Amino acid sequence: MAEERFPALTVAEAADIIARCGSALIVSHKSPDGDAVGSATALKKIFESLGRRAAVAVPTPVPDYCSFLTEGEDILYRDGEEKEFGALIAVDVASPAQLGELSRLADKFSLMIDHHASGEAFAPHLTVPSASAAGEVVYDIYEELALRGLVAQGGADVARSLYAAISSDTGSFKYSNTTPKTFRIAAALSERINGADDGGLATWDISRLLHDTVTEKDLRINAFVADRIKLFKDGSLSACLITADDMKALGAEDRDMGGAIDVARSLAGVEAAVTVRQSASDPNEFKISARANADVDVAAVCASLGGGGHRRAAGATIHAASPEEAFSEAVRAFMGDAGEYGKGRCLGDEQK
User: Where are the alpha helices (DSSP H) in the chain?
Assistant: First the structure.
């Protein structure tokens, strides 16, 4: 079993590994989000405060709303980049599949830092399912290193990345994964960030960039999704199919679609939302994203489709002969005991 081959670590043991690393390439998952980029850039800064060389690499481009975290640096993986570093560390990655094309490097990682309840360990791992974000786990390691006197406690730059990571995965502290510990960490980070006289971003700047800033393309995508939403189960399930042709017409890439699921679940009365998006490179591959507003275990449904994630936020990748077949399979899975899903009720049709 993976758990026997790759041991579960304590915070102290993970800190030991980091303290021993001479240099590290820090890798996060494909279609990176705020937690992925924030946690990885925070760990890079921690390595630099240790006097070590580090870099961040992701298999697919960073979305625009996270670009402030990279400070203008291109962190898209370069072929062979791992050869320049003594260790590979994965952050916010639950399984090799989440590494995309970098899954070929899975057996080379020295450490996994994660917070997903389900996944496939591919290295010694510190996995904390109760943590709201990988950023919380990195924070604990940072504090452990500070207690040992290896790094200075209270750096605003590290705090900004960690605050962004946690704010992103908690939806600005409004999702059900937000715990009392989350608020305590956020308070400590807020004090460091807003108390720094260094001209850097304040917590409210970070929140605005993450949650309250959209591009014209984002608005077009959101309008498209709103027009295509179909409602099932008396309006408690919303679903949207997005084909490769739709993406092309919108001028959108995968990294632009992170907010689509939030549009689908924002409608009053919706308990669970799902988007089904066709791959541009493989017309038979479809990415499913699911979110829950109520006590609905979308991770269990996604697991039945070969995916997984958190109870209220999960995903899967399926293969089907057509977009309609993929959409049918996904909706049937989320219908559960409701049986046949029929045609659903399309919001866009009601406006015509």
Answer: 2-5, 11-20, 34-49, 67-70, 134-147, 156-169, 180-194, 203-211, 216-228, 244-250, 260-265, 298-304, 323-335, 347-350
Residues of the chain with CATH 3.90.1640.10: 2-211
Question: Which of 3.10.310.30, 1.10.10.10, 3.30.360.10, 3.30.70.330 would CATH assign to domain 216-350?
Answer: 3.10.310.30
| Residue stretches of the chain with pLDDT short of 50 | 1-3, 338-343, 351-352
Q: Helix axis angle, 156-169 relative to 180-194, nearest 10°?
A: 140
d(CA 3, CA 103): 19
For the record, the structure tokens of 235 come out as: 């309006």
| Separation between Cα atoms, residue 155 and residue 336, nearest integer Å | 48
The closest of 244, 338, 239 to 290, measured between CA atoms, is: 239
CB 272 within 8 A of CB 49: no
**Residue for token digits 């099932």?**
232
Say if CB 158 and CB 42 are below 8 A apart.
Answer: yes
Structure tokens at 201: 């971003």
Q: Please name the CATH architecture into which domain 2-211 falls.
A: Alpha-Beta Complex (3.90)
Helices in 173-267 by DSSP H: which ranges? 180-194, 203-211, 216-228, 244-250, 260-265
Q: Which amino acid is at 60?
A: T
- Would you say the C-alpha torsion 74, 76, 80, 85 has a positive or negative sign? positive
CB-count exposure of residue 142 (10 Å: 0-12, 13-18, 19+): buried
Residues 258-297: tens digit of each pLDDT:
889 999 999 999 999 999 999 988 999 999 999 999 888 9
Residue 172 is encoded by which pair of tokens? 């600005």
